[in-house]
Structure to design on (298 residues):
């Protein structure tokens, strides 16, 4: 009995220029400095909504850093120890970022409720000026990431996050205007709760896709039944079993399976099918005879 074991790599890169990556690192530094200004300003002005905007901005700043680092390490070659490369570092970083985002949201809910119960005197003008600065920075960062957003899902998320930051800054500006014109201090607590619920919503919605990747689950857009039926239609394939599909990273999908057949050309035909029809770019296909069904358990 002879088992034929073969695998092929078919990679689809999302080209992001080195210039854009440099801009991302610069954006990270600028956003961190902005967050520090917002936190200090929020403490001085007595505004929890401004501190909340700073926490959300800090989370998105680290998202920018994760994206920039991911683009850098994505070009590193796999090693004997890290045989799949380093692309999942982006997913792990995103998971940590979501936990921090969720905790920050809970903190803002507690503080926002406290401000609603006991409104504090707030410096509305300081809130407005700092939020205008934040709006400008968020708009510039969004413009930087928008250039590559159309062909990179990672860069698209950076763009969406910065756009959301810009709207958050607008909300805080409106909060400051209400305080200056009408002395409505409880609006600061309301705005803090709005930002908090948005942060928690973001973390909850993004949680499942990231956990699925870490748990080696089949991607949401992959239908195993369709894959099996498509492969079985190839002439020379008698059966397919022990099929596993998982994501190495956000864009790289892997598949391994056992094929009952004897023609080595089947490996190339199956790889071509999986690449063109299902965008599966890393395949491990084993050709074998009937004895596998008795020997293999997975």
């Amino acid at each position: 009995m002879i088992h034929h074991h073969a695998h092929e790599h078919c990679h689809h890169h999302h080209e992001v220029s080195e210039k854009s990556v440099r801009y991302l690192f610069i954006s990270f530094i600028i956003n961190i400095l902005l967050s520090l200004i917002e936190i200090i300003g929020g403490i001085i002005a007595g505004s929890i909504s401004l501190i909340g905007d700073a926490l959300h901005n800090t989370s998105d700043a680290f998202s920018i850093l994760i994206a920039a680092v991911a683009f850098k390490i994505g070009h590193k070659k796999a090693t004997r120890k890290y045989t799949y490369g380093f692309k999942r570092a982006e997913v792990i970083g995103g998971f940590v970022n979501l936990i921090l985002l969720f905790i920050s949201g809970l903190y803002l809910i507690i503080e926002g409720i406290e401000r609603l119960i006991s409104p504090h005197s707030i410096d509305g003008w300081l809130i407005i000026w700092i939020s205008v600065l934040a709006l400008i920075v968020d708009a510039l960062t969004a413009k930087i990431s928008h250039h590559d957003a159309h062909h990179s899902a990672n860069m698209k998320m950076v763009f969406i996050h910065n756009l959301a930051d810009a709207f958050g800054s607008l909300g805080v500006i409106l909060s400051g205007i209400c305080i200056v014109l009408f002395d409505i201090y409880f609006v600061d607590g309301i705005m803090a709760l709005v930002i908090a619920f948005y942060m928690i919503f973001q973390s909850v919605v993004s949680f499942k896709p990231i956990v699925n990747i870490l748990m080696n689950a089949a991607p949401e857009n992959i239908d195993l039944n369709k894959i099996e039926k498509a492969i079985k239609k190839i002439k020379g394939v008698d059966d397919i079993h022990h099929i596993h599909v998982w994501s190495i990273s956000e864009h790289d999908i892997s598949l391994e399976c056992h094929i009952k057949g004897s023609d080595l050309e089947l490996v190339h035909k199956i790889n071509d099918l999986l690449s063109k029809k299902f965008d599966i770019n890393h395949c491990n296909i084993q050709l074998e005879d009937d004895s596998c069904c008795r020997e293999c358990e997975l």
